[in-house]
């Protein structure tokens, strides 16, 4: 048996994909947020070299086409399917789920990478705060609706997976999810960065709760991808907030003096986690001990689950 690969801060998606090519081979994977110059695109590009099918999603089909062309230019044999998905809209999520569920193929891995810009207070079509809706509620509903396709991928030797791209920023600011304003957003209480911190806390709590409730039928994980200068950090509405934290300098570019930035190709994909459901990863390694206390509380995870069910108007059971 070959030794397990050793990953670090500098590990790239290319290296991880190569190391686990045999595990990725034949899998069907759906990744949200796959525009060029993003970590979702980089994950799709690498996984497409080995997977049976990679579903790339976004709310803009022209941008999805650019991603598809770029992937196929490098991997001509890649089986890419474009899917319009607006995670800020509950009807939009349901429409996308109908498309996936109409296909007979199982879904082995669901990667929740998409996130809303870190910007001013904004309500969605469902009257939810935009960051919370896009980063948590939409992914929660999508996971619930795609559960039949995910469970169909299970075999005696394989447990389907859901991965949430969270952030170490869940520990910043107030951090703890403000349950009082989830269903009824309050512009007066809104703080741009803290809304992001809370959304990332929700990702970690949800991954742990999925693993607990599924009782081994579905393994969910959350991870910190590192500071990466992607298209989200370059959006006009995000720049001021990132400057305020010091992550971006006055010129709007990464502040390398204060923060350690990664390049886009760095990410994680590790099949040795089957016995660690609900784990949180950092630098391609389990780092659950680094999760903030307020984001590792089972009672908070259960409460968040219940409130989110009420928001989507559906019960999420296994």
Description:
- It is a single chain.
- The longest helix has 23 residues, at 192-214.
- This protein has a single domain (13-225, 261-311), classed as NAD(P)-binding Rossmann-like Domain (Rossmann fold, 3-Layer(aba) Sandwich), CATH 3.40.50.720.
- The protein has 318 residues and is of the alpha/beta class.
- It has an 8-stranded mixed sheet with strand order 3-2-1-4-5-6-9-10, sandwiched between helices. A two-stranded parallel sheet has the order 7-8.
- Helix 5 packs parallel to helix 6 (130-145) and helix 8 (192-214) packs across helix 10 (298-312).
- The protein has helices spanning 13-19, 21-24, 39-47, 61-74, 90-101, 130-145, 147-151, 192-214, 236-245, 298-312, and strands spanning 28-31, 53-58, 80-84, 109-112, 161-165, 219-224, 227-228, 261-262, 280-282, 285-286.
- Mean pLDDT is 81; it is low at 6-10, 226-234 and 258-269.
- Pfam families: adh_short.
- GO terms for molecular function: oxidoreductase activity.
- Belongs to the short-chain dehydrogenases/reductases (SDR) family.
- This is Short-chain dehydrogenase/reductase family protein.
CATH structural fold name: Rossmann fold
**Oligomer state of the chains in this structure:** single chain
Q: What overall geometry do the principal axes of the alpha carbons give?
A: globular
Percent strand: 5-15%
SSE pattern, N- to C-terminal: HHEHEHEHEHHEHEEHEEEH
| Structural class by secondary-structure content | alpha/beta
Q: Please report the first level of CATH classification, the CATH class.
A: Alpha Beta
Name of the CATH superfamily = NAD(P)-binding Rossmann-like Domain
Q: Count every beta strand, where a strand is a DSSP E run of 2 or more residues.
A: 10
How far from one another are the termini?
Answer: 35 Å
Helix content: 25-40%
GO molecular function, one term: oxidoreductase activity
Keywords: Oxidoreductase
Protein name: Short-chain dehydrogenase/reductase family protein
Pfam family, one: adh_short
């Amino acid at each position: 048996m070959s030794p397990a690969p050793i990953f670090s801060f500098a590990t790239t998606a290319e290296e991880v994909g190569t190391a686990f090519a045999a595990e990725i081979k034949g899998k069907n994977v759906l990744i949200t947020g796959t525009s060029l110059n993003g970590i979702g695109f980089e994950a799709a590009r690498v996984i497409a070299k080995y997977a049976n099918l990679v579903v790339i999603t976004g709310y803009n089909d022209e941008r999805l086409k650019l991603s598809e062309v770029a992937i196929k230019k490098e991997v001509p044999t890649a089986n890419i399917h474009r899917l319009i998905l607006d995670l800020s809209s509950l009807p939009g999520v349901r429409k996308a789920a109908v498309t996936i569920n109409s296909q007979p193929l199982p879904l082995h891995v669901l990667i929740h990478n998409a996130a809303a810009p870190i910007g001013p207070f904004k309500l969605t079509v469902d009257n939810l705060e935009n960051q919370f809706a896009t980063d948590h509620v939409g992914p929660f509903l999508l996971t619930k609706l795609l559960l039949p396709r995910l469970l169909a991928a299970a075999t005696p030797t394989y447990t389907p997976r859901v991965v949430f791209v969270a952030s170490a920023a869940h520990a910043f600011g107030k951090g703890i999810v403000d349950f009082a304003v989830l269903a009824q957003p309050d512009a007066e209480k809104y703080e741009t960065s803290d809304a992001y911190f809370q959304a990332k806390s929700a990702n970690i709590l949800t991954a742990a709760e999925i693993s607990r409730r599924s009782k081994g039928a579905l393994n969910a994980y959350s991870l910190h991808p590192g500071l990466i200068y992607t298209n989200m950090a370059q959006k006009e509405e995000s720049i001021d907030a990132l400057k305020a934290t010091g992550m971006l300098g006055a010129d709007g570019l990464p502040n390398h003096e204060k923060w350690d930035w990664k390049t886009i190709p760095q990410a994680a994909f590790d099949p040795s986690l089957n016995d660690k459901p609900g784990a949180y990863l950092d630098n391609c390694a389990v780092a659950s001990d680094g999760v903030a206390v307020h984001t590792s509380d089972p009672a908070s995870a259960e409460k968040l689950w219940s409130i989110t069910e009420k928001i989507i108007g559906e019960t999420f059971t296994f």
